[in-house]
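Q: what does this look like with pyridoxal-5'-phosphate bound?
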Amino acid sequence: MAYNFNKIIDRGESNSVKYDLRSAIFGKPDVIPMWVADMDFETPEFIRNAVIARANHPVYGYTFKPESYYQAIIQWLQQRHGWAVHPDWISFSPGVVPALNLAVLAVTQPNDKVIVQTPVYYPFTSAVKHHQRELLINQLIFSENKYTIDYDLLEQQAREASLLILCNPHNPVGRAWRREELEKVADICIRNKVIVLSDEIHNDLLLPGYTHQVFADLSSEAAQITITAHAPSKTFNLAGLSTSSVIISDDTLRKKFRHTLEGMHIELGNLFGITASIAAFTEGDAWLDALVTYLSENIRYATGIINAQLPWVNVVQTEATYMMWIDFSASGLSDEELKQHFIHKAGLGLSPGYEFGPGGQGFMRINVACPRSNLEKAFDQLVASFA
Ligand SMILES: Cc1ncc(COP(=O)(O)O)c(C=O)c1O
């Protein structure tokens, strides 16, 4: 079946964070928005049909998660990631960021030390600081245009930390961590009794040639220390439905997480999110394969334009996610100047790298999950802005 990712959807006046908050965020209502991580493609038809069918039932009362919800997640994780999950391990969370915060509350105490690997999606650091835990920055090493983990520093930090929040795959640097890399992380954390919160929200968005390694599936020892955050939201463009799950095989760890979750009475889930998840995970295979092909073509196109027209700009290889992570430091502009340059000279609404913490300075993150014609326009504007 063919899917039309070239179709332009008018997202204006739909209360879209990406579009309708442009004036508030960028001070300009007409920048091409390529920042927040949702896609400009239609949420697939089989999901919309399922939501519409449920919406047609005239009562939207309290709802619970049926067996088919758990089975849909389990089957998806087994088939796409080779991970065997038991239904009891799955808890609902109204989003992965809420799950990160819940996990911090559940498994650490105030003043405990929590490791994050910057540059990283900024709610990782705020989930630590907001709850008065101490942040330990394990900055990624950037060398020969590739990001790797600083294991020596991690080893030192793990001696005093209670938790590592891992971004697997990594947003914004686009790494799909290899099994060998994650095994080293697991070894350090197991020896030092550090719990690993593995945010795997981008687990389905691996570009051709790369595979996702589930952290908890490295070994039974790794599973015992891991909390996995998982969601259909990035894969199927459902972020507005606030639906994700947290998967924990270890009974003690799961009890702690559930205690915090249930203390807030948010474990029931929401009606449309549950309906959409079942449709996504039971019918989504072919659509996802087509999406990934389209995204990889977008990334190839954008990389080609930059390499040809702006050879002083350095594009980091995207292995996963639909974000490109691009080094503009050779422009000589400060972070503030770069930010203003992209808004006012290029007419683009991007995420400045410094927002992702130490190591992000001089970079911009560009969300390329949009129809090709919009991408072409955006990259034309980007190139012209430096003429
Ligand atoms: C690594 C990562 N985790 C979590 C989220 C957001 O999750 P949610 O919308 O479910 O809170 C994002 C969104 O960009 C992300 O990149």
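Residues 60-283 form a domain with the Aspartate Aminotransferase; domain 2 fold (CATH 3.40.640.10). The pocket of pyridoxal-5'-phosphate is lined by residues 37, 95-97, 121, 167, 171, 199, 201, 231, 233, 239, 244 (CB under 6 Å).
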